[in-house]
Amino acid sequence: MNKRVAVFRKEHFNAAHRLYNRQWDDATNFRVFGKCSNPHYHGHNYELEVRVTGEPQADTGFVMDMKVLSDLIQQYVIEHFDHKNLNLDIPEFKDINPTAENIAVVIYNLLRPHVSEKQELRIRLYETPRNFVEYPA
Ligand code: NI
Fold it and tell me: What CA–CA distance (Å, rounded) separates 40 from 8?
């Protein structure tokens, strides 16, 4: 019998970014990225949902202790991103655009080493209440 259960932890952080392709001129960047290419950056209130899937452990009944999961997200994601300029402060975005898609992949890679290999990890990131991404898809 499949006893796998998904558990979720929500966190949030604020960060600034600018979306642009340095190979393109300003007009092309504005056409593709709109206001998100504003040279002086802009901020988002990112809402993060981390999903861990696995079987509840026999001794605790937990898939994963939520306090442990919360601490991992705080330590490896929130401390890293909160109140930062993603383009300028975060080495992972030195050469890639800090889109919601790419931020979700970076967050997954930061957390993956700290979650049991037996458990599936999935990241959902809301850039606005209506726009959100999920990785892995
Ligand atoms: Ni933006």
Answer: 35
- Kindly report, residue by residue over 57-66, the tens digit of the pLDDT: 999 999 999 9
Q: Write down the pTM of the prediction.
A: 0.94
C-alpha to C-alpha distance for 46 and 39, rounded to whole angstroms: 20
Structure tokens at 15: 């960060």
Domains delineated in the chain:
5-135 (3.30.479.10)
Query: Over the stretch 95-121, which tens digit does the pLDDT of each residue have?
Result: 999 999 999 999 999 999 999 999 999
d(CA 92, CA 66): 27
Query: For residues 27-51, b (16+ Cβ closer than 10 Å) or e, as one string?
Result: eebeeebeebbeeeeeebebbbbbe
Separation of CA 37 and ligand 1 centre (Å): 8
DSSP string, 48-59: EEEEEEEPPPTT
Ion ligand 1: protein residues whose beta carbon lies under 5 Å: 36
CA of 15 to the centre of ligand 1 (A): 9
Q: Just list the catalytic residues.
A: 36, 83, 127
